[in-house]
Write a structure and sequence with these properties.
CATH superfamily: Phosphorylase Kinase, domain 1
Structural class: mainly beta
Strand content: 35-45%
Radius of gyration: 16 Å
Number of domains: 1
Number of helices: 1
Largest sheet: 8 strands, mixed
Distance between the termini: 32 Å
CATH topology: Phosphorylase Kinase, domain 1
CATH architecture: 2-Layer Sandwich
């Protein structure tokens, strides 16, 4: 993960590993976190702006590019980063909640998650999700949303 916004321009990326499984299908082999070694499972994320800060950390916008996947396009993503123990626990619970909803077949109205990752140095964790637009909190207070929005 590279930071490239404002005063940030990291020449060396921060490395994260997938630390929780993406899905909960039955008969799935046990999940084991591992470093990316073959390139096929690796991706690069370039963080381009900060969206906001909250109780569970910082929300950042970026671009994800799978490595070694010829012709694969990039994706607009949101990376939610948490640093202290309380934020990390909260972010992990949020991810588990998304997984639970997916298991129950709830897909509508929920931004698809790409995964939960831990910094290899153990100082941060992140949820990577597809970018779904501006946060509701930034909309005009007079704006009315319907249940289909």
């Amino acid at each position: 993960m590279y930071l490239r916004y404002g005063v940030y321009d990291s020449p060396i990326p921060a490395s994260f590993i997938r630390s929780l499984p993406l899905n909960i299908p039955p008969n799935n082999p046990p999940f084991s976190p591992r470093r990316c070694t073959d390139g096929g499972q690796c991706m690069t994320i370039v963080i381009t702006s900060e969206i906001g800060q909250g109780v569970t950390g910082i929300a950042l916008r970026g671009t994800l590019k799978p490595k070694n996947m010829e012709g694969a396009g990039s994706l607009d993503v949101v990376v939610k980063l948490a640093f202290d123990a309380e934020q990390r626990d909260s972010l992990k619970s949020e991810y588990e909640f998304y997984r639970h909803l997916k298991l129950k077949g709830v897909n509508r109205g929920i931004t698809p998650t790409i995964g939960f990752f831990d910094d290899i140095e153990g100082s941060a964790c992140a949820i990577v999700m597809l970018y779904a637009g501006v946060p509701i909190s930034t909309l005009d207070p007079g704006c009315m949303l319907t249940t289909s929005d």
